[in-house]
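Here is the promised in-class demo. Please do not try to memorize the tokens; focus on the logic of going from shape to residues.
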């Protein structure tokens, strides 16, 4: 089947206005990198999400789930298949000390809404740029907090389009890992357990974390966030800094001079340059310290 046939088939059950052919993925990623998707689908309901996933699975079409594009590098060849995004699934609801959020909601928006309800426990996520779905898949964390600290359960879709409700134990959340990532599940929504707190203390903590983030991270340039996982007993940024790599890179991709754990797009970087810069960092750190840096960001898509 052709990509035109895929789009026509999906238009039977998904709003045709939300199906695009040959869509550039640069505008959907925080790095502003990446080629085109054969078919790009923005779903509006959980039923549409299940339909797209079942269709891709049934017809053996490569499927890429794109959240907020904050922890992902899409290669310059784009994606030869279907790219689906759940960004319209963005409902956030509070019931007592429980918070419900759909996959497409931004995790920082969930954090901020919880704060306005005087709920504590989610402050750590106030600056994380990803979606709830992406945060669940990688057990996102910052400043001493992680998703696993507050999660109750997640509703997910399997590759076959079957709906499962996974408890905290089922999710197998570890350092930047989960059963969601291992099994290739697609998050529809999640429920979190918070606690009533003191508004002034919550506001002060968010203000402090926001200051730390803005003063230490290179937010003025597009980037994929923290590129590497923390090696046991070390900090990736410190290893990169001590390797003298800040300000170095390939083309317009550069190891940030503000935070060595970030690689930024200084203007017109290509995904190939960005990935080459990642590989340069891995090579130099391995040579100097004998430590293998594992990427935290996902590198997906096809080469040109």
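The designed amino acids, position by position:
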């Amino acid at each position: 089947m052709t990509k035109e046939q895929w789009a026509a088939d999906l238009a039977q059950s998904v709003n045709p206005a939300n199906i695009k052919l040959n869509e550039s993925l640069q505008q959907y990623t925080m790095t502003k990198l990446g080629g085109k998707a054969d078919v790009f689908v923005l779903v509006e309901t959980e039923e549409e999400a299940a339909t797209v996933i079942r269709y891709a699975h049934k017809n053996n079409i490569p499927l890429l789930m794109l959240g907020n594009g904050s922890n992902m590098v899409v290669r310059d060849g784009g994606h030869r298949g279907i790219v689906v995004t759940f960004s319209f699934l963005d409902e956030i609801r509070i019931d007592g000390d429980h918070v419900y959020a759909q996959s497409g909601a931004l995790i920082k928006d969930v954090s901020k809404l919880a704060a306005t309800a005087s709920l504590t426990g989610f402050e750590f996520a106030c600056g994380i740029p990803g979606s709830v779905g992406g945060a669940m898949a990688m057990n996102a964390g910052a400043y001493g907090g992680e998703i696993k600290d507050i999660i109750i359960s997640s509703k997910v879709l399997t590759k076959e389009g079957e709906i499962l409700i996974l408890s905290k134990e089922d999710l197998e959340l570890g350092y930047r890992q989960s059963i969601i990532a291992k099994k290739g599940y697609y998050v529809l929504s999640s429920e979190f357990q918070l606690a009533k707190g003191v508004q002034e203390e919550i506001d002060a903590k968010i203000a402090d974390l926001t200051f730390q983030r803005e003063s230490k991270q290179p937010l003025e340039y597009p980037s994929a966030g923290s590129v590497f996982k923390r090696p046991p007993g070390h900090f990736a940024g410190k290893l990169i800094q001590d390797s003298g790599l800040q300000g170095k890179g390939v083309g317009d991709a550069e190891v940030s001079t503000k935070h060595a754990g970030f690689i930024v797009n200084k203007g017109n970087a290509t995904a190939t340059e960005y990935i080459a810069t990642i590989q340069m960092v891995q090579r130099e750190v391995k040579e100097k310290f004998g430590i293998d840096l594992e990427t935290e960001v996902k590198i997906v898509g096809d080469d040109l």
